Amino acid sequence: MKVAVIGAGAAGFFAAISAKTHHPNAQVHLFEKSSKTLSKVLISGGGRCNVTHACYHGKDLSKNYPRGEKFLKHAFSEFQVQDTINWFNGQGVELKTESDGRMFPVTNDSHTIANALLAAARQLNVNTHLNTPISAITPTENRFSLLANGESQQFDKVIIASGGSPKRAGLTWLEDLGHEIVDPVPSLFTFNMPHESITQLMGLSVSSARLRVRTTNLEVSGPLLVTHWGMSGPAVLKLSAFGAVDLASLKYTFEVQVNWLDQLKESELRHELELLDLNKDKKIMANLNPFGLPSRLWQFILQKAHVSSEKRWLDLSKKEINKIVNTLTNDNYSVEGKTTFKEEFVTAGGVSLDDIDVNSMQSRKVPGIYFCGEVMNIDGVTGGFNFQAAWTTGWIAGKLKSA
Q: Which end of the chain has fewer beta carbons closer than 10 Å to its terminal beta carbon, N or C?
């Protein structure tokens, strides 16, 4: 059996390794259009490679995928986080878990992960072809003809791991084979706020805030980071992932409402203030911040509420207290555009999951073609989830099971 794997990223490498593991006598050829392999692996996690996430139950794990939750819930029953850990351990790579659940190699070096994949592929005699883009796939009788650099080659099975495409045009070759394509849109991005003064607080972070996009049902909680261009951090990235399609339709121009106290509601905050009996406190506003917010943020909120930081709590009017409460729980900002999050280039969209058999990753439209990784309409939030989807779908695709 002769197998072609298109795309030498995380999913493609793992699919090629899986194919040779499950079919030792097969000839497996891995094609990469560029001159480099595993580029995303090497730059991810700031060069440390966030391999996966310490979430060991498929149902909970699948909830971190805005697109593909139901599909992956089933797939994770066949290959999940513990299987990833075990596989890398088998290659002599030990992983560690950080406080937020992200998992990295103990070396803190992404080359450790890339080298493990490269070594496994070499040991299994996977044939890797660089600078070899596949320009056409033509189904023939029980086989496939692949056109690479003007030369036609014949294969029995084809695994497509070409990654996400920022534009639909990059997926037309798969549409031409009869597959339904879900229009790609960016996922995992930060919010630009060019006209908001909060950017003066760049570098400031809060451990847990609640964000809601006005006029939508999009709402998340999590750590929030203020940057020189707007807002970032896990809360913003999660909101951008789950809202990828909606925010694209809004052309990335919308209002985001921030509750700096996360779950605390306006009525609950008023009750807490009554219990604190702040009206009897002689301290000035700047020196008494009863909410544990960063000092710079507290000063900013007072300024936004038009309350002097030199004023004493006991001198506050009811109107001023209302302004502070409202700013803390219903703070509004105008978002005008997005910025890609570091090296994380992730797209929502791709080959429709309706066209793929989850048990084998085989195309329902063209038997003998398999898919894995981000070329499918699957994407996860940041934290190692996109790599886990690559390992899982790549492993299953490499089994080359028939429908």
A: C
